[in-house]
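G., the chain you wanted modeled:
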Amino acid sequence: MFIPKYTSHAKSRLNERDISREIVEWIMLFGETIFTHGSTKYYIPKKDIKFLRNEIPNFEKIKKKLCKVIIVADDDTVITAMKKNKRILKS
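Predicted structure as tokens:
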């Protein structure tokens, strides 16, 4: 499994928002990406979540969070994580 690095800001945001590193790693591994503001945003669209059922152990436990979190990263370093509260618009 892919293991990213984390900035101190990312560590505190993950803790504040109750987002596990496991969620971050799965989103970065299977998620779609958008390049904005010099960083890459990783997310899993709700329509794609069903395809991950056989790929991710303990899927049922974490499926809701997988499609509600956005990870912002620069290369293999997580900068921050946020809850997705609206649709992602691709340009």
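DSSP finds three helices and five strands in the chain.

Shout if anything looks off.
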